[in-house]
Amino acid sequence: MLRSLSVLLALPLLLAACEAPQPGRGGASLPRPKAPVVTVEAGPDAHTAAVNFLAVARDMEPRIETECLARTRGRMNCDYQVMVDEGRDPQPNAFQTLDDRGRPIVAFNLALIAEARNRDELAFVMGHEAAHYILGHLEQKSSDASKGALILGALAAAPGADADGVAQARDFGAEMGARAYSKDYELQADALGTVIAWNAGYDPERGALFFTRLPDPGHSFLGTHPANGERIAVVHRVVTALRRGTFRGF
Description:
- With 250 residues, the chain is an alpha+beta fold.
- The protein has one domain.
- The chain is built from 9 helices and 4 strands.
- A 4-stranded mixed beta sheet has the order 1-2-4-3.
- Strand 3 and strand 4 form a beta hairpin.
- The protein is globular and about 40 Å long.
- The two termini are 35 Å apart.
- About 18% of the residues have low confidence.
């Protein structure tokens, strides 16, 4: 169940009942500015975690909307809302979705709020998820899945596959299509999320250390996410350009 920020007074109690997952391992990939150092920063207590989330949401929401309006020029609904998913999934998760009226929503589950070590991590993840919508990834993934289903369905039908065989081929094609560019979309969202968090006054490089506690997907063939080291490298490059004043967008 999703809850808006206005009804989160009980969030510390909900977080107290939520066990944070065990740390995973960091990864490394090209390009490598530096091997990531696994953060040893202690996690906050339930009250601090709730306060951190509320503060970051209030800082980030207007920055997200500003970036959305600037990039989409009124073509998309930029009236963002940050919400909490009260489900009891023990794995940290955040996601971008739309409500019934087409309003964009960034939702965090309780496990992620509890797992985040600091406000920089929350801001980076929030910026990353919002970036998927701003960059049009929701529509692009749907289009990719449709194309994959169409192609494999046609290939299966050509040699005379029955209806079940064609349906299975379409399902597989849709999955393949949806995954085809998902790693690229994640890296693009990392880059824009870095800019949004930076503009809101947070440190995206510190925030990206969140990756060092997640299992590394590496370079699996059908994986949906890039290697953790590759993602950290993208954040490093963007922050370096922002600090030097040489960032020109993308």
